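User: I'll paste a sequence; please echo it back and then give the predicted structure.

Assistant: Echoing your sequence first, then the prediction.
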Amino acid sequence: MNKNAIIHNIIKDLQSHIDPAYKKGCTAFFKESITIYGVRTPITRKIAKKYWQEIKGESKEHIFDLCEMLLEKGYMELAIIAFSFARNLEKQYLVTDFKRFESWLKKYVTNWALCDDFCTHAFGALVYTYPKKLLSKVFAWTKSKNRWEKRAAAVTLIHFAKKKTWTDQYLKTAKALMHDPDDLVQKGYGWMLKEGSNVWSAKIFNFVMDNKTKMSRTALRYAIEKYPKEMRKEALKK
């Protein structure tokens, strides 16, 4: 089946699952305007799995082109499906795929949900596969003027925590973003530290204690969320 036909059928499936109440409620979670059909995420992911069975035999290039066509439509649900397809190709990733993924980040990621979905899964998996070549490129996003690239600099590293693989870029990134005024960037690196605390509890807590007067309260609260009550109280003391 050609790419246009696949996209037509995906959209048709999504339109048959629109939930008006969910669509209305979604807007409350975003500061930006969003374009959605109004399909709940678990259903969107089921649709992604359905169509993956139809395209999984195609070449990586063919599927990446399809992903880009889905992203160009501008709908949240289609982006979730595109990022799901891209993640399914993890075993075929090459270091050169960074250029394409980065272009998607810059062009199509327009809110925190898409940033987190893309970066903690497909993009995070790519960087994890080639850390020596790609971590420095990810760190460069901390200097970006784009809030989603800065958030991505942190949340992409969450994949390393999932794999229990330490990288010094964890703390380096937190320091680089520590004084950023954007609350969504603060929440991003705070979340990164929180996920890291699941694996490197002492190391992350020591970092928090050393830097708590420099961190925003938003980032600090995110970072310590999974520690015991007494440790959280200690971290929040001025």
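The chain is about 70% helix and 0% strand. The radius of gyration is 19 Å.
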